[in-house]
Structures are given as structure tokens and as C-alpha cells.
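To the wet lab folks,

You asked to see what we're planning to order before we commit. Fair enough. Below is the target structure as C-alpha cells, and below that is the sequence we designed to fit it. If anything looks off to you, flag it before the synthesis order goes out.
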């Protein structure tokens, strides 16, 4: 199946009506959005990752103008959100312990 017309010397290639129609449909689906002073056309990918294995568990595609708050992947399964929350709490707990330990060591070394 040829989508483009045969090449004729001195003539430009014409795009077949099938390809032209397909391109029109793709253009209609995407939308424009503006971030700062730049304009973007296209789509956004929203992903939900499994924190335990680092795999993408769910992917949703929306138009570029859809705000991130409009897509909520956490409603479908709460397991991954809870794991993320636990990981963040654990991270901050460890970080706070490290900073407290470092500050105590610094004080002990300076107060002979």
C-alpha cells in the first residue's frame, strides 16, 4: 500500500488523502497550553509508579491543556500512595536523626 504518489522529476510529492485525513484527526485531538511565555501543543503523560519495584503501574494520556489536578490516579488503588507516604515519613525521620546527630557531634567537639 503506497500512501505517497510516485515521484515525478520537477514536481513536489503529494500527500495522499488517507495520510492527510489521519494528520487532521491527530491535530484535532491535541490542544494548546501556555506555560510562562511559551506555547506548547500536544499531550501530557500522567504516570503512577510502584515505589517498591520502580515500575510504572498506570499511565494516562491527556491533552496538553488538562491541568494535573484533573487527573487522579490514586483513586484507583491506594496501595502505592500509602507506600509513598510511608517512604516519605521514613525519609524525613532518618534525615532528622542525622541532622540532630551531626549537630550534637558538632557541639561536643567545640565545647572542650
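Sequence we intend to order:
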Amino acid at each position: 500500500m503506497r500512501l505517497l504518489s510516485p515521484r515525478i522529476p520537477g514536481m513536489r510529492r503529494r500527500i495522499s488523502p488517507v495520510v492527510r485525513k489521519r494528520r487532521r484527526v491527530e491535530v484535532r485531538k491535541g490542544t494548546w497550553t501556555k506555560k510562562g511565555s511559551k506555547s506548547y501543543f500536544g499531550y501530557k503523560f500522567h504516570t503512577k509508579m510502584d515505589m517498591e519495584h520502580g515500575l510504572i503501574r498506570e499511565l494516562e494520556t491527556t491533552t496538553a491543556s488538562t491541568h494535573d489536578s484533573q487527573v487522579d490516579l490514586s483513586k484507583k488503588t491506594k496501595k502505592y500512595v500509602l507506600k509513598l507516604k510511608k517512604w516519605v515519613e521514613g525519609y524525613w525521620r532518618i534525615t532528622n536523626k542525622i541532622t540532630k546527630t551531626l549537630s550534637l557531634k558538632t557541639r561536643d567537639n567545640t565545647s572542650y
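Structural context that might help your review: The beta strands are 31-35, 38-50, 55-63. The radius of gyration is 27 Å.

Thanks,
Computational group
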